[in-house]
Write a structure and sequence with these properties.
Elements lengths: L10 H16 L5 H16 L5 H16 L3 E5 L1 H6 L1 H11 L2 E4 L6 H13 L5 E2 L5 E2 L8 E2 L1 H5 L3 E5 L3 H9 L3 E5 L6 H5 L2 E3 L3 H15 L4 H9 L3 H22 L6
Parallel strand pairs: 1-2, 1-6, 2-3, 6-7, 7-8
Antiparallel strand pairs: 4-5
């Protein structure tokens, strides 16, 4: 990894880029994942590189769903494996969810590398290699494990493809997405959309889980029942607008 001084104004962003590049070099992340990372980084910049209030609300609701689920699954792709392997393992541990690797650019070699990478960060059993069930999709993200995503009632899909998100919702599953673009197919289709950087979102969810595990099922259900995903998406768009307006004002640029 390239040495980046901690006082660099773009330190966190540059470190994230380095992790994705390392993921490509390790054979975990696809080259196309570099493009996806850049797109997410752009939206993070627009939202102010912070967890906005509505995203924190969505993260708490996501935790409530995971804690009340019968069979929660956390889906893992190449980017999340490179960026937040430890957080994925920790979130699975505290919520009782299982990890399943699911890839658009799938190969046996990549599946093996990602599974072993997660295990190196403390994961026990990692699903995904069986591929003994199939979603109604025309690409390799259709390939899932029967005991995992296919039978899950709640699926957390950080950095998701929109068509798989739509298909999972059509199958009657609760889908929790982490997506900084509030107008993506994923964001618009998901049950819960977390408009936050995945590096912040998972750490927040781990902390919220530790706080909420003592809550009763009734209390958790009340959190779920009060949630409005459309309002959260609207708030994310408003936050982007307000951040740009404030930035323009600081630079003496008239906002039209």
């Amino acid at each position: 990894m390239t040495h980046i001084p901690e006082d660099h104004p773009r330190y966190a962003s540059l470190i994230t880029r380095e992790r994705i590049v390392e993921g490509v070099q390790m054979g975990i992340t696809s080259q196309q994942g570099l493009v996806a990372q850049g797109r997410g980084e752009a939206f993070d910049y627009l939202i102010g590189e912070r967890t906005i209030e509505s995203a924190a609300v969505a993260e708490r609701v996501a935790v409530a769903y995971l804690l009340t689920a019968q069979k929660p699954i956390i889906s893992v792709n190449g980017n999340t494996a490179a960026l937040v392997p430890g957080a994925l393992v920790s979130l699975a541990d505290v919520t009782g969810a299982q990890l399943e690797v699911n890839l658009f650019h799938r190969s046996d070699a990549r599946m093996h590398r990602i599974i072993e990478h997660l295990k190196a960060h403390g994961a026990g059993k990692v699903l995904g290699s069986k591929g003994d069930a199939r979603l109604d999709l025309s690409h390799d993200r259709a390939i899932v494990d029967q005991e995992g995503i296919y039978e899950a009632d709640v699926v957390l899909v950080p950095l998701e493809d929109g068509d798989r998100c739509q298909k999972l919702v059509e199958m009657g599953k609760i889908v929790i997405a982490v997506d900084l673009n509030p107008l993506s197919r994923t964001s618009l289709s998901a049950t819960v959309t977390i408009a936050d950087n995945v590096t912040r979102a998972l750490e927040n969810m781990i902390q919220f889980t530790k706080e909420m595990k003592k809550d009763s099922k009734k209390q958790l259900q009340a959190i779920i029942d009060s949630y409005d995903n459309r309002r959260v998406l609207a708030d994310a768009m408003y936050a982007i607008q307000e951040h740009l307006k404030n930035q323009a004002g600081r630079e003496g640029i008239e906002w039209i």
